[in-house]
Amino acid sequence: MLRSLLGEPPRQNEGLLADTMDIMVQGVKLLQKEMERHQDPSHDYRKLEVWTHGLISSLDELEQCLFAATFFRKKVVKDYVEDMDAAEKGDYARYVFFYKDGFIRVFSILDKLGTILNEMYDLNTSKVKTHYSYFTVLRQFHYLKVHIELGDKLFSIKEQYKETLNVLRGRRNTEIHYMNSELKDDLWQRHQALYGKIELEDLDGHLQDLDQGYQMVCKTLYTAFEYIVKRWQR
User: Fold this and answer.
1) Element (H, E) at 141
2) How far is it, in rounded angstroms, from Cα 116 to Cα 144?
């Protein structure tokens, strides 16, 4: 959708994104077969199907946010907002919008996956924490000593991206709970420069963090659904 609005050709899924989308679609098809076989009187399979479709849409939206943020970042060439004309300021604002939307979606997707895993494997995470996150669900695999293979693989991915996740989590928390992340940066830079011009944050570094978060989400979803599909096929 965003690509067409930006005058770009449609995305062709490939690599990790294609593999992740494909394995989730396989999961949906297996759920549909189970519904046909058992009629799903309690609607448990239907609920999981709806949630999985939601994950597929959310991953698509995250990739679009990353693409759009990268697209508008390329249009920002000045190092200071004060030096930008109106058009460049608009492009910078669009970069900020999609960048922020992207890092919020990283954790939103993980939490949605956590809900599915908690429901599917009876992890009872709500007994540990009423409003739990994906990371709380992940700890339940180890605590309950169930589905150790899956838990270990997901934990390994989390550890691989630990530093990036900490950075993105800090920005997400600031954005949601305190103040706009770019305002926080502006205040710090204003303090440093006193009455001088405010230099932009590290746009490329921020995009690299978002891309790493996106990669982590893809690998996590792929691993979780590969495990789910293999079990259901048996």
Assistant:
1) helix 134-144
2) 17
CA angle in degrees (0–180, nearest 5) for 61-151-19: 40
CB 137 within 8 A of CB 152: no
pLDDT digits (tens, 9 = 90+) for 82-131: 899 999 999 999 999 999 999 999 999 999 999 999 999 999 999 988 88
Name the amino acid, one letter, at 77. Answer: V
- What pTM value is reported for the model? 0.89
CA angle at residue 144 from 51 to 20, to 5 degrees? 35
| Environment class of 10 (CB within 10 Å of its CB; exposed 0-12, middle 13-18, buried 19+) | exposed
Domain ranges of the chain: 2-233
Q: What are phi and psi of 14, to 5 degrees?
A: -155, 165
